[in-house]
Amino acid sequence: MISKTDLAARYIALLKKSLINELYIENEARVVLVVDSLLNRRAFELGHLSGIGREVALLSLLRKAKDDGSSVILRTRKPDGTSAPVAEMRNFTELSHTMVGRKRLNNIQTCIETVLDDDIPGDFLEAGVWRGGSCIFMRGVLAAYGVADRIVWAADSFEGVPPPAHPQDEGIDLSVGVLPVLAVPLEEVQALFKRYDLLDAQVRFLKDGSRTRSQPHRSSGWQCFGSMATCTNRRWTRSFRYMTRFPQVAS
After folding, report:
1. Quick one: which of 23, 26, 181, 222 is 20 to 30 A from 56 by CA?
2. Could you give the 3-state DSSP secondary structure of residue 29?
3. Domain ranges of the chain
4. Is 57 exposed, middle or buried (0-12, 13-18, 19+ CB in 10 A)?
């Protein structure tokens, strides 16, 4: 049974706000506003930055994205009134350290606390970690509760999502050429852990260097592979459903 102190609760709540970039949401809104103006060749004044609080619709959209894990995709307007998404701009405008949002972080916290309260043996693993935010959160929760005998495993290719190669992936292409924002090198993920002062012996990295996709389908959710309690993101089930064997272990 873990001891849920007020200090631990405050740390975990602050960690969530930092990971989803809620603490500096106005600066993210400023970046989005500037990039959107450049894309659409609209007049822009410095006063728009100091008066960012007046961009109620934009701030509301960003708050929703940070709560439910959705994305704000910029679009270019055409002379005929239509528009087209510019997905690659997420590299410059998506500043959160996790894309899962507060609701999923709350779910991860509940799952971790259940595992600890019920004394279920095993470590924690995420398959497909992006910038590492969810794994950083897992490590932070363990630190908040003083848990020193469990490891957080971060499993990824750290090269982005491979091109679609299966019938189930038809119409869904999340590869580097389409969404370079998803390709985050191992060194960047490790550096982010270090920035949060959470890179230690309780964090391990599994790198799929071969990009082999030969394993049978695994559904998303909390599962147990050996002694590892595993949490995967339902949004990327198709792309990462084979990531259950990683030939390289990075310490």
Report:
1. 181
2. helix
3. 21-93, 101-250
4. exposed
Q: Which residues of 150-163 are buried (b: 16+ CB within 10 A; e: fewer)?
A: bbbbbbbbbbbbbe
CATH topology of domain 101-250: Rossmann fold (3.40.50)
Sign of CA dihedral 41, 42, 47, 49: negative
Rounded to two decimals, the pTM is: 0.82
Q: What is the pLDDT of residues 48-61, one digit of tens each?
A: 889 999 999 999 99
φ/ψ (deg, to 5) at 131? -85, -5
Quote the radius of gyration of the chain (alpha carbons, Å): 19
Report the alpha-carbon distance of residue 141 to residue 8 in Å, rounded.
8
Beta strands, E only, 104-242: 123-127, 152-156, 203-207, 222-225, 228-231
Phi and psi torsions of 211, nearest 5°:
60, 30
pLDDT of the residue at 46 = 86
Contacts (Cβ under 8 Å, ≥6 apart) of 207: 156, 157, 158, 186, 246, 248, 249, 250
Distance separating alpha carbons of residues 162 and 175, to the nearest angstrom: 5
Which of 81, 217, 201 lies closest to 151, judged by CA?
201
How does pLDDT run across 99-118, given as a tens digit for each residue?
A: 999 999 999 999 999 999 99
- Chain-centroid distance of CA 87 in Å reads 16
